[in-house]
Structure formats: C-alpha cells, structure tokens
Amino acid sequence: MSDFLSELSWRDLLYQQTEGAAAHFAAGPVTAYCGFDPTASSLHVGNLVPIMGLVHLQRAGHRPVALVGGGTGMIGDPSGKASERQLLGLDEIDANVAGIREQLGRFLDFSGERGAQLVDNGEWLRSLRAVDFMRDVGKHFTINLMLQKDSVKSRLDGGISYTEFSYMLLQAYDFLELHRRFGVSAQIGGSDQWGNITAGTELIRRTVQREAHGVTLPLVTTTSGAKFGKSEAGAVWLDATRTSPYKFYQFWVNTEDADAVRFLKMFTLLGREEIDALAAAVTAAPHERAAQRRLAAEVTALVHGRPAAELAERVSKVIFDKRVDVRELPLEVFQTLGAEIPCARFPAGHALAVLDALEQAFGLSRSASRKLIQQGAVSVNGEKLSAETTHIDFAGAAYERWFLVRKGAREVAVLELVD
Questions:
Q1: Which CATH number fits domain 335-418: 3.40.50.1980, 3.10.290.10, 3.30.2350.10, 3.40.30.120?
Q2: 112 burial level (CB within 10 Å; 0-12, 13-18, 19+)
Q3: Residue 51: how many CB atoms within 10 A of its CB?
Q4: What is the DSSP string of 190-222?
Q5: Within 13 A of 212's CA, how many CA atoms are on the CB side?
Q6: What is the predicted pLDDT for the residue at 83?
Q7: What integer pLDDT is reported at residue 1 of this predicted model?
Q8: What's the pTM?
Q9: Which of 202, 168, 146 lies closest to 75 in space, CA to CA?
Q10: Quick one: which H or E segment has residue 334?
C-alpha cells in the first residue's frame, strides 16, 4: 500500500479532503468511486483529472469504481453552470453512457481481486419511486443545508429549478447505494463537487452509521488564465473520431513552458526523477520543448495507445522539421498528413503544373506563386524548386502518389495523385 493522498499531493492533484480521510486510506484497501456525467458521447481532456485520480487510487492498492450517470444524466449536475441544462432524451443518454464506458476501460485494470468496476447509476435511479426517495433520503437534508451548497448558492439570483436543486440528493443517494452494493467508502471528484460529496458522506453517516470520506481534485487552468481543455477548434475530446490523435498530440505539445512540468505531474505516470530532469531541461533549453514533447507523447499514448502516439509524433516532426527525409517515411504518415493538413488531389495520369499545385494547396494566386518560387521559398519532397520549374516530376512521388510541399518556413501541404 502506497500513500494515495501523498501521491496526489506531490502531483498537484489534491485540493480538499474530509477530516480523517488520510487515516481511512492508510488503514487498508479502500473502495472509492468517481462519477462521470453522460452529457456527450465522449469525455474530454478536463475529465483526465478525475480519471488520473482513479488511476493513482488503483496504483496505491485501492479499488476504483467508475460510475457513469445514466440516471443522474437525466437531470444534469448544476455545479459550475450559470444556467439550466438542456435535458437529454433517454436514447441519447444511453448512447453517451456506452461511449464513456468504453473510454474509461482504457485507463483502469479490471482484473483480479482489486479490479476496477464500471457501474451505471441508471440501474437504481430510473426505477426509483419519488415518494420513497423523499421519505428515505429527503428527510435527512434541510433546505438550509442545501442552500449553503455552492452549486445552489451561485444560482439563486438567476434561478434554479427544483430538478437541478435536488441533484445533490441523487448524488448522495448514489454514494449510499454504492456503499451498500460494493462497500464504497470514499468518493473522488472535482473541487466543484465538494458539496455533493459531503452530502453523500452525511447520508451514509445518518442512514447506516458508517464512516465515509471525500477527496476533491483541482479544476485546472493554464498559467495564462485560459480555460484548460480548449483549443481553437473547441473542446479536446478523448474520442479519436472527434479529436484525432494528431490534433490531441498537438494540444499537449503546444503547452506553455510555465505549465509543462505541472501537467507532466498531473497527466502522466512519470516518476519524480524523470519529471525533475524534464523540469531542468525546460530551464536550460526551453526552445527544445523536451517537456512538452514528452508530455504529448505520454498523454497521447495513455488515451490512444502507444502506436497512435508514435505516429502523431512522427507526423508532427515531418511538419515542423525541414530536415526530414520524406523517402524514409512510412505510408501511414502520408495518409495521416492528408487528413490533418491542407491536401490537394490531382489525377495521376496528367502533368501537374507547379502553379496549379500551389493554388490548390495554399490558395495562392499565380503571381504570388511565381514570386515564391523565384525566391527559392518552395520545396517539394525536400527539393527546392528552381525558378525555371514549371511542373512537378511524378518520378519523385513517395509511394508513387504523395508529395510534401513546403512554402516558406512554416506552411506545409501535401499533394496526392489519385487514379
């Protein structure tokens, strides 16, 4: 048994804990849970904070339970929301639950005596009778207590429906039900869940006279003050069909220097020595971005698997390193490039004019293209085009169909010959 809370602390993942939580986790194996809202068919990078909490819980010798809210998702958690959520239909909720269950299965070990469990609270909440719930659960909570919870207090001026007002009771009931079914005695969640978590510990104490605890994790922001988990294209999803492994890798590799070491601690399983060495590298040679590259590789591998991470890393290197020899690149790199960066397609059986290629690949006028070629600012598959070049030689195509075109120092596109 390693010290779970100490591990969270040095990784900057510990925000709050109930009194006695440290002794509770130190006393022996604990079964603890964390809930995930099925508001979408995929989790996003912000969800990696509680996911890593469960991962470290299991690595410390405890048993994690990942709870997907097929029941609570019918209402929606008001925590951190300025207005009422739009209610989802049952079919949409069920589809979202299925997607989230599959994703959570990538992070935890489900084998053995301490194997993780995936549970859907729709199993008990959807059949719950309102009168029974108010009698057995509602009587343990005063309106005064509920009004003091941040998720409610922050919404009083703008208004909150009885539906969302009662959400904390449902989450408290989840904690009690998991305690009865699986012996769950602790809950992990974001810092905005503190009120909901302590409602659950109180319900367990009142109904079954047992000890229960809560641990919260920080809500992450970047050093610049930007909201973590957003890119120019929007949310960064864990689903490869919504955010490709390449774009996922790019999100992490573009981390600011000031955040790189902190994120290495939070979102990877690297040990202290490796992270300290990467911290030193950031100080000594920040331009090499060693910490960001390792961060991107580790988190992408954790979410999408090591092969996908290696491919994303290699594609990234092709784009940003002009010294890459395209003749040594595997076919899958070109295929990925064709999906991720500007790609112009031309018939394989016809001559390919350079001006046509630059117009379609970069949206350049013919006069602008001529000027760039004359300046020596255009290369195809690593070969700089001379001012006299009018057509691209098909003999130089990689795999008889691909060309990598560079314009200036930073802009890159691919050309594909199609039958």
A1: 3.10.290.10
A2: exposed
A3: 25
A4: EGGGHHHHHHHHHHHHHHH----EEEEEPPPB-
A5: 30
A6: 57
A7: 45
A8: 0.88
A9: 168
A10: helix 331-340
